């Protein structure tokens, strides 16, 4: 759960099409929900696209797709 | 009573559980409620051959035993307590084999309950297309549960699954797992054992769940909750931390098993979904497609439904004539034609529109589109205090507010869920269609504009738009008023697009239409008959008195026979109980341009909006004995007895339309909102503000135009 210090970047700062490996979650409640869906630390996550007007993030991990809010994406740290 | 062997159907959202449920039980299913909430409980039966059929309960889809919405809480509530009414004898766990590395978390939790489990490995047809190799026997051995590969879509492997269920029911197979999957740390184990002591029959893992969820589990007493609280504190039990540790340990243990027995897919999986989403969730084209689809839905309701509706209308016309010709004239024939058939026709004529609407909405849900709509509009919905998931409720609200209100249970945040519930009835539902259809012709002529648009069709869209604006406006107001510190989540899985299983869509349409005919239909029919009685009878002597006076009046002013009959009929209904009722509220509604006949319709349609048309049919067919017009034509004939001007002129008709756009004229919605919010407070508030808005807008329109 604890983010590693070497060069992690929150998902919210990603560009469309950019991918990374989940290093951890900065918010335990959010992390627990994502883990229950099978989005685990170590998994590769790709930001597919963003909804208009600062809307939700369309994120994919393999063939699993999930929509996250920007505030939720801010809690996912990738390396 | 003999015990009925019960199996629970469980699985993650989007695992294809409903398809499998429909395959197992066909139309042998009933929809009920879980205690305390209106979460749909679908119960079906599976024939066993010899002996009583097996009961199958379809539980809401859930990711784990650590719920984030009311839907998911139901599962924990029923499975953590062996005394629960819905506690099963065995479990069929449905997992999507193409997402097995995620879907087995809940299976390993269920396995630890100590109940016999069969793993139904679903979507085997897709797995074959993708070249996925599954070692069924190896997986079964590694997980310690029987595995049945199936396809809920094609029905492949179903007989094998049924046989496995029957074998469990006959006690021939399906033992509970020998040892738990999750190895709890020592302090948690002690806490779990202590908690299990409290609930008779609970095992250690159920004990852990009880301790974890003690604050909301309804079967615990206040004293038990306190005891568990202090036990948890002694054990140093931090729920969130424990939950994550448990989840990670489970993944660490089952992912290697999955890797060992299921190969990686060869084909590039779900490329189609990615390509479709490039358009369907595109920043610009996504919303365009969404509104295009909504337009298509409208077109379908208004254009395609008219053919079967005309047939039904003609059928009832013929039935009425047949009854009139066959039965001797008198009150029996009157009751059947003016009460029963008028009411029944008023119900059945809307079946085509309702069926088409539910068909299209079920189709959008089934192919996986609704989640995309939620993704695209989450930001917009949030600015009105709603959630992206609210779009599903708002769109379904176009069919009927009742299932729409129930669909809000997937919204985890209470404030967002409450606002969605409060504003959804503003969306014009199918029950408003008949009212709009009857009245719109009095407001706008059936002209073509710009060559392609029908003016009445545009006015229809305008009314829907008005409902949407009211819903969003009210949501915005509630957003400012209601306060919450609860965190709000979107976190919504976007499932693969799949070709719809028509059986599932068909079953949904069948259920909704049946519910409409039986639930709403019974009310409408009862009201039609009561109304006929009220309109046919009055205080002793009053109606005869009115009739005699009308005859005298007709003679002195030298009316033709037809006009005289109309006058007599009108005076009779005025003197009836129904007339008295309408007259009593006339002072309140007169400023809106409504007369006492409309007053009767407004009172009766508090039960359900569509009653309006039935009421009009009953009142006017009694009003004029030689009725050969449809309701609309008859209403167009109606003249003010004093001024001789049409009663349904522009100001009055528009005021009536506005009233029906905004008013909360539906008993069933009030009841459902009461159940969903667990108090009378919210339905009362909702009823008040909706009625107030309806009254004021009708008042404004009439006063400005007349």
UniProtKB/TrEMBL annotation, chain B:
Residues 4-171 form the FeoB-type G domain. Keywords: Cell membrane, GTP-binding, Ion transport, Iron, Iron transport, Magnesium, Membrane, Metal-binding, Nucleotide-binding, Transmembrane, Transmembrane helix, Transport. The gene is feoB. Its main location: membrane. It holds the Pfam family FeoB_N. Coiled coil: none annotated. GTP binds at residues 11-18, 36-40, 58-61, 122-125. GO terms for cellular component: plasma membrane. This is Ferrous iron transport protein B. The chain crosses the membrane at residues 284-305, 340-364, 384-406, 418-443, 455-478, 516-535, 654-673, 685-705. It comes from the Bacteria.
């Amino acid at each position: 759960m604890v983010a590693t210090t070497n060069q992690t970047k929150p998902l919210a700062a990603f560009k469309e099409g950019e991918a990374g490996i989940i290093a951890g979650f900065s918010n335990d409640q959010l992390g627990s929900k994502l883990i229950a869906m099978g989005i685990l630390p170590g998994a590769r996550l790709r930001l597919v696209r963003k909804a208009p007007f600062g809307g939700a993030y369309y994120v994919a991990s393999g063939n699993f797709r999930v929509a996250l809010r920007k505030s939720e994406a801010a809690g996912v740290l990738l390396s | 009573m003999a015990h009925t062997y019960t199996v629970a159907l469980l699985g993650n959202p989007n695992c294809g559980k409903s398809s499998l449920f429909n395959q197992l039980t066909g139309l042998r299913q009933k929809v009920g409620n879980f205690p305390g909430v209106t979460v749909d409980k679908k119960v079906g039966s599976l024939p066993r051959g010899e002996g009583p059929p097996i009961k199958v309960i379809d539980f809401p889809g859930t990711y784990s035993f650590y719920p984030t919405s009311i839907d998911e809480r139901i599962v924990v509530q029923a499975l953590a307590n062996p005394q629960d009414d819905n506690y099963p004898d065995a479990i069929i766990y449905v997992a999507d084999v193409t997402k097995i590395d995620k879907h087995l978390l809940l299976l390993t939790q269920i396995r630890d309950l100590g109940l016999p489990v069969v793993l139904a490995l679903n979507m085997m047809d897709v797995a074959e297309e993708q070249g996925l190799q599954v070692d069924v026997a190896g997986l079964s051995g590694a997980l310690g549960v029987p595995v049945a590969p199936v396809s809920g879509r094609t029905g492949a492997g179903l007989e094998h699954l049924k046989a496995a269920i029957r074998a469990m029911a006959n006690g021939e197979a399906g033992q509970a797992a020998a040892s738990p999957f999750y190895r709890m740390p020592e302090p948690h184990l002690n806490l779990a054992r202590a908690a299990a002591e409290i609930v008779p029959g609970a095992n250690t893992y159920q004990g852990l769940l009880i301790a974890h969820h003690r604050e909301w589990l309804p079967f615990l007493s206040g004293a038990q909750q306190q005891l568990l609280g202090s036990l948890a504190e002694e054990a140093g039990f931090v729920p969130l931390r424990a939950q994550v540790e448990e989840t990670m340990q489970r993944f660490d243990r089952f992912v290697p098993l999955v890797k060992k027995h299921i190969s990686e897919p060869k084909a590039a999986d779900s490329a189609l979904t990615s390509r479709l989403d490039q358009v369907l969730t595109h920043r610009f084209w996504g919303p365009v497609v969404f509104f295009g689809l909504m337009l298509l839905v409208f077109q379908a309701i208004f254009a395609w439904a008219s053919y079967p509706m005309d047939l039904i209308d003609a059928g009832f016309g013929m039935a009425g004539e047949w009854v009139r010709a066959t039965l001797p004239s008198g009150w029996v024939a009157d009751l059947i034609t003016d009460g029963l058939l008028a009411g029944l026709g008023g119900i059945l004529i809307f079946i085509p529109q309702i069926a088409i609407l539910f068909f299209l909405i079920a189709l959008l849900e089934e192919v996986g589109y609704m989640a995309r709509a939620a993704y695209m509009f989450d930001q917009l919905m949030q600015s009105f205090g709603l959630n992206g998931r609210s779009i599903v409720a708002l769109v379904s609200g176009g069919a009927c507010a009742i299932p729409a209100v129930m669909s809000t249970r997937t919204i985890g945040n209470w404030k967002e869920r409450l606002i969605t519930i409060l504003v959804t009835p503003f969306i014009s539902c199918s029950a408003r269609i008949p009212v709009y259809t009857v009245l719109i012709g009095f407001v706008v002529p059936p002209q073509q504009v710009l060559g392609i648009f029908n003016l009445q069709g545009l006015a229809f869209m305008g009314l829907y738009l008005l409902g949407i604006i009211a819903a969003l406006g009210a949501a915005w107001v509630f957003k400012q008023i209601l306060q919450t510190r609860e965190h709000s989540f979107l976190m919504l899985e976007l499932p693969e697009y799949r070709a719809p299983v028509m059986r599932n869509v068909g079953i949904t349409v069948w259920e909704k239409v049946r519910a409409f005919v039986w639930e709403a239909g019974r009310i409408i029919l009862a009201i039609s008959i009561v109304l006929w009685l009220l309109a046919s009878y009055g205080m002793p002597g009053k109606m005869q008195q009115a009739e005699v006076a009308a005859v005298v009046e007709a003679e002195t002013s030298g009316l033709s026979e037809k006009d005289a009959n109309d006058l007599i009929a009108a005076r009779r209904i005025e003197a009836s109980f129904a007339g008295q009722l309408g007259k009593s509220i006339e002072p309140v509604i007169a400023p809106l341009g409504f007369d006492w006949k409309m007053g009767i319709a407004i009172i009766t349609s508090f039960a359900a909006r569509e009653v309006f048309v039935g009421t009009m049919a009953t009142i006017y067919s009694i009003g004029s004995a030689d009725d050969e017009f449809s309701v609309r034509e008859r209403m167009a004939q109606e003249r003010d007895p004093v001024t001789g001007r049409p009663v349904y002129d522009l100001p009055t008709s528009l005021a009536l339309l506005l009233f029906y756009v905004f008013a909360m004229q539906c008993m069933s919605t009030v009841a459902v909102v009461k159940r969903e919010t667990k108090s009378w407070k919210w339905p009362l508030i909702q009823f008040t503000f909706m009625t107030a808005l309806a009254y004021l807008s009708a008042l404004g329109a009439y006063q400005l135009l007349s």
